[in-house]
TrEMBL record:
SMART domains: ML. This is MD-2-related lipid-recognition domain-containing protein. It holds the Pfam family E1_DerP2_DerF2. InterPro entries: Ig_E-set (IPR014756), ML_dom (IPR003172), ML_PG-PI_TP (IPR033917), NPC2-like (IPR039670). Residues 33-147 form the MD-2-related lipid-recognition domain.
Length: 157
């Protein structure tokens, strides 16, 4: 009887713990990011983008975590995101930079994180995201990176 009780507790522990561990240790994938023009000395230098989950799953939340640095204080501005599918722009959105990160942004390293749920009608495939950060009429940075959208989560096995 004692061994049956331990087995039931183990099963309960396993059923509760495993999904929690999967959420905690879900892989965040680094994505190749390119500045739009390597000849421009942008005020904000983007060092990397992480996407979770990768590939993005239709109708599920996704997080884009952008690691960057700046040599100057940035009082505010806007973030403009343009998404293209097979070269055709399919989505544009603009956000107040200070709603995405606490302003002013002090000189040094910082992380900009944005989460959202993609609409259920987005077709699966490869996309390109172009993001600019602007302050008044100054272009602070411009980056591009690719990401994929899938109908279903991809197993790591």
């Amino acid at each position: 009887m004692a061994s049956l009780f331990r087995l039931k507790n183990f099963n309960l522990f396993f059923v509760v713990l495993c999904p929690t561990l999967l959420l905690i240790f879900h892989p965040i994938t680094a994505t190749d990011v390119k500045h739009c023009d390597n000849k421009i000395d942008y005020a904000i230098k983007v060092h990397g983008v992480e996407i979770s989950p990768d590939p993005v799953v239709i109708g599920k939340p996704v997080s884009f975590i952008i690691s960057a640095s700046t040599g100057q204080d940035i009082p505010g501005g806007k973030v403009v995101i343009k998404v293209s599918y097979f070269g055709l722009q399919v989505h544009t959105e603009t956000h107040n930079l200070c709603e995405e990160i606490s302003c002013p942004i002090a000189a040094g390293n910082f992380v900009l994180s944005h989460s959202q749920t993609l609409p259920g009608f987005a077709p699966p495939g490869s996309y390109t995201l172009k993001m600019t950060m602007e302050n008044k009429n100054q272009l602070l940075t411009c980056i591009k990176f690719n990401f994929k959208i899938s109908l279903f989560p991809v197993s790591d096995n």
